[in-house]
Design brief:
Radius of gyration: 20 Å
Order of helices and strands: EHHEHHHHEEEHEEEEHHEHEEHH
Distance between the termini: 25 Å
Strand content: 15-25%
Oligomer: single chain
CATH architecture of the largest domain: 2-Layer Sandwich
């Protein structure tokens, strides 16, 4: 199992403070569940070197690498190269292939591809780090500013929504400095935030739409998935932030989200599993925000919850991902 070098899980969580356990909860859940299922699991902590991974594969010859990496050498977009390295070693792995990871991780490129396929996505512009700030007149306020490459809501807060050019400039400069990446600016879509899980390689299935519920919002606060709202457990409990099956959807919306999720998955050449994020206006119009390859697999998070709702228990979900990983037809298997 491939994990970040600081997230190698302990054998047990007994005596581990809840805040500390939250850091490696996904890694612990996957490892402990796979071991309970009878698998022989060896976690490999990866930082900026692949030497231990290569030696372990050569000496141990695992049937599959369970990929839980989200970066390499501190760079989010480099995890795709680790997967490409596994393909060069002719090693089976779980999750998305390198091409799908590259296309989906690059938020700007993925939005360009989706626009080409006429898949509804908010109008956008990208501001390169170090480049001149020239604001296109076609974009309409309010605008939403985020990193063009970082995930896990890094750099997203209530200040990410801007109403004028002065605040737009300020937020772009913040993203450039805070995340060391280009800034993606898109028109803000007011509405519900829905997630659709997708599983499969050649044949795919979607999961029941899941909704991020923002709880009690203070006056003037926008319903956006900030970093604190997504990952701070105490903050979630304090404000009643939860997620659950999307209820009372407008007629036909669930089917439309299903079709869109499938088209997006195909257009971005994704395999394994993914989560497609949507915003849906009050009139039922959906817009895709982004496609997330290899989303969080924590036992009590959105993806596993949606799978469980659809009759796929957590052990069965992990086993399904292993089966898909071993069945994926990389170029060297043709």
């Amino acid at each position: 199992m491939l994990v970040h070098e600081t997230l190698v899980p302990p054998e047990t969580l007994v005596g581990v403070p809840e805040q500390d356990a939250a850091e490696f909860r996904t890694e612990f859940d996957v490892t402990s569940c796979l071991r309970d299922m009878g698998h022989d699991v060896r976690p490999i902590g990866i930082g900026d070197s692949l030497t231990e991974l290569r030696v372990t594969i050569q000496d141990w010859q695992p049937q599959v690498c369970f990929n839980l990496l989200e970066e390499f050498g501190g760079i989010v977009t480099y995890d795709q190269h680790v997967v490409a390295y596994l393909e060069l070693l002719r090693q089976s792995y779980t999750g998305c292939n390198p091409r799908g990871m590259m296309l989906s991780r690059d938020k700007v490129l993925s939005k360009q591809i989706l626009a080409y396929h006429r898949i509804p996505t908010p109008q956008f512009a990208v501001f390169r780090r170090g480049g001149a700030l020239r604001f296109p007149r076609a974009l309409r306020y309010p605008l939403f500013v985020k990193s063009a490459t970082e995930d896990a809501s890094l750099g997203i807060s209530q200040a990410s929504i801007v109403e004028d050019a002065a605040r737009l400039r300020e937020r772009i400069e913040f993203i450039h400095g805070h995340t060391q990446s280009d800034a993606l600016v898109e028109e803000y879509v007011e509405g519900r935030e829905l997630y659709v899980g997708v599983i499969g390689n050649d044949r795919i299935r979607t999961l029941t739409p899941w909704e991020f519920l923002f709880g009690e919002l203070k006056a003037g606060r926008a319903a956006i998935a900030t970093r604190k709202a997504k990952w701070d457990r105490a903050y979630q409990k304090r404000h009643g932030i939860t997620s659950g099956r999307a209820e009372s959807l407008p007629a036909g919306l669930a089917d439309r989200l299903d079709r869109l999720a499938r088209r997006i998955y195909r257009a971005l050449h994704m395999t394994g599993y993914a989560r497609i994020d949507f915003r849906v206006r009050d009139d039922g119009t959906p817009f895709v925000l982004e496609a997330n390859a290899n989303p969080n697999l924590e036992r009590e998070e959105d993806f596993a919850d949606a799978a469980r709702n659809d009759g796929i228990a957590y052990p069965a979900l992990l086993q399904k991902l292993i089966t898909l990983g071993r069945a994926y037809r990389a170029a060297w298997r043709v």
